[in-house]
Amino acid sequence: MEGDGKKILLILGTPKSGSLCHALADAYARGARSQGHVVHELRLGEIQFDPVLHEGYDQSQTLEADLVDAQRQIHWAEHLVFVYPVWWGGVPALLKGFLDRVLLPGFAYKFRGRSQRWDKLLAGRSADLLVTLDTPPWYFRWIYGAPVHHQMIRTTLGFCGIRKRRLAEFAPVRLASEEQRQQWVIKAEAMGRKA
């Protein structure tokens, strides 16, 4: 059965343990596995790496073993799932540091000589984004301009050739009842079943 399912890498991008993001990630994985998909998980709060790209991309920085494994899993995956909270309008520093360290030139993209053109080395993959936030979605979109969505979809994943399939917002978390949270978990599981 493993050969029939889609190869999915789920990346949980929060350092906080026991959060709603964990419940959403678990539910998505459960739904996907119920349909025969193969799901690998990267819980960034549990792996070891320095999230700081100390010299930018001017100098090479040795990848820790967990980041080498992360690159291997990204190459393996057909579909990526990112689950993370919105903090200060963006992704948590841990997830940003992970992306900075892993999506390197030569792995995720490659410029063509001295031109403004580049090859998208992760093309052919798709992604779902499950995002929690305390701001009501309409306010986040129309007043703040949803900056984290543009960052993730266009200037990060899109730059590398990863196509966004679905974006689901779960909000506002702070005011949500337990019943509402359970409905969100059910929604995440349904998304996994339709991976």
Automatic annotation (TrEMBL):
GO terms for cellular component: cytosol. Residues 6-174 form the Flavodoxin-like fold domain. Keywords: Oxidoreductase. It holds the Pfam family Flavodoxin_2. Gene3D superfamilies: 3.40.50.360. It comes from the Bacteria. SUPFAM superfamilies: Flavoproteins. One of its GO terms (molecular function) is NAD(P)H dehydrogenase (quinone) activity. Belongs to the NAD(P)H dehydrogenase (quinone) family. PANTHER family: NAD P H OXIDOREDUCTASE-RELATED, NAD(P)H DEHYDROGENASE [QUINONE] 1 ISOFORM 1. This is NAD(P)H dehydrogenase. It comes from Pseudomonas mangrovi.
